[in-house]
Amino acid sequence: MSQMTTIARLTTQDVDFEARLESLLAWEGVSDHEIASRVAEILAAVRQRGDDAVIEYTNRFDRLSVSSMSELTIGADRLAAAFASVPQTQREALQHAAERIRAYHQRQKPESWQYSEPDGTVLGQKVSPLDRVGIYVPGGKAAYPSSVLMNAVPAHVAGVAEIIMVVPTPDGIVNELVLAAAHLAGVDRVFTLGGAQAVAALAYGTETVPRVDKIVGPGNIYVATAKRAVFGQVGIDMIAGPSEILVVSDGETDPDWLAMDLFSQAEHDEDAQAILVTWNAEHLEAVLASIERLLPTMEREAIIRESLARRGALILCDGPAQAVELINRIAPEHLELSVEAPQEMAEGVRHAGAIFMGRYTAEVLGDYCAGPNHVLPTSGTARFSSPLGVYDFQKRSSLIQCSPEGADMLGRTASVLARGESLTAHARSAENRFKR
Question: Is 235 strand, coil or helix?
C-alpha cells in the first residue's frame, strides 16, 4: 500500500488560518551561534594567514591533499577545454541558455544621463561597473551550471573588468559542465575553493586570490553566514533561504502539471516550500490526487515528501482578489499564475521575485533558459528586494557641474541652510563663490 502524502490544508475562512499561515511561512535564517563562531574563526585565519589557511581548510573540508594554491587554480585554457569536452547536446543547451540570459540582461543595462539647467549648471548620474566580482558556485554532486550563467552573465554585461569564480571540488570531483558554463559566461579565473574559506579569500584577498568588490552566488549555511559576516567590507547579493513556489490556479489547469510544478521546488531540499492557492475546492482535491499518484514515481520522492510535510500547503481561498492578497502577504520567490487572464492578475501583484504568467509557463523555464535571472529573493524578502541583475554589478555616481551663475544661485540657498546648522565653513565655502 502506497504511503499517504502529508501536506497542510488551509481554508482562508478557518478561525486559525492566520496563525497557521504565519507558522508555515516562518523560517529561521542564519542564526546558529555555533556555526557563526566557526565561521568567524575561519575568516580570521584566512585574513591573517592567507593562502596557507585556505589550503589547510580546503584539505580538511574537501578531503584533498594539496600543498600549493596552483593546485586549486583553473585557468582559461582549462575552461575552454571543458567546454569542448562536454557532449554536444549539453554544449548547445548551455549556449542557448547563455544567449537568452545575455539578451534579457542587456535590456536591463542602465545608461549614464545628464541634463543642463538654463544657467548652464549640469546635473546627472554616471553609471560605472564594479572592478572585480567573486561568484560562489556550489560544487560536488549538487553542482549547478545554470547558477554560473545566472551570476556571471549579468556581471559580464555590466562591464565588470574581472570575474573570479570559486567552486569547491570535494574529493577532487570537478564538474565539467560548471567549467564549461564558466567559459561561456566570461569568467576570468576559477579557484577550486568552497565554504567560508572561499568567501574569506574573496573578501580579504590572499597572496593568490584577489580581493573582490562584491560576492554573489548561493551556498550552504557556512557560506551564507560568511557572506553576512563580510558584508560591509565587500558587497553581497543576498542571503538566500530555501527555494519557494506559490502556484495560483483557477481550476482549469491540468492537476498533473501543477503537482509537478510543486514538486519542482520541493525536490530542492526538505526546507523548500511549495504552496497551491485556488478558489476551486474540486480542483484542490484533484491536485492532491495527482500529488498522491505521481509522488512515488519521483527520483527524489523522500525529499519531496518531507518538504511537503514540513512546509507545503494547499490553500482554498474565496476568489481571485483574495488570492492576490495572499500573494502579496507571502511575497514568494517564484509565483505561477496558472489562470485565464494572468496579466490582469499580475497587475495586482506587488511582491514576488519572478511571476510566471499563464498555464504554459512552468517555473522551471525560468530556472534555466527563459532569460530572466533565477537568483531571486526568498523568505518574504521580495517585499523589499529584487532579482539579481546587471544593476547589482554597477554603481552610480552623482554628477554636479555649476556655472558661475549656478554657483551664486545655489550658494545663497546653501549658505542660509549651513548657517542654520551652525556649519560656518560650509556657509563660507558657498559664499566665496557668490558673484560680486
Answer: strand
Which position has the higher pLDDT, 2 or 275? 275
DSSP E strand boundaries for 58-121: 73-74, 113-116
333 catalytic? Reply is yes
Long-range contacts, 291-295 (Cβ 8 Å, 24+)? 291/5, 291/7, 291/259, 291/262, 291/263, 292/2, 292/4, 292/5, 294/256, 294/259, 294/260, 294/263, 295/5, 295/259, 295/263
Q: 3-class DSSP state for residue 244?
A: strand
Residue 76's SS3 state is: helix
Model confidence at 1, pLDDT cuts 50, 70, 90, reads very low
Please tell me which residue in 244, 306, 333, 363 is annotated as part of the active site: 333
pTM of structure: 0.93
Beta strands 73-74 and 189-191 are antiparallel
Which pLDDT tens digit goes with each residue over 381-407?
999 999 999 999 999 999 999 999 999
Q: Using the predicted structure, report yes or no on whether residue 41 has a pLDDT greater than 80.
A: yes
Domains and CATH numbers, the chain: 8-27+241-370 (3.40.50.1980), 33-236 (3.40.50.1980), 402-431 (no CATH)
pLDDT of res. 27: 79
Options 334, 351, 363, 374, the catalytic residue:
334
Burial of residue 294, with CB atoms counted within 10 A of its CB: 0-12 exposed, 13-18 middle, 19 or more buried: middle
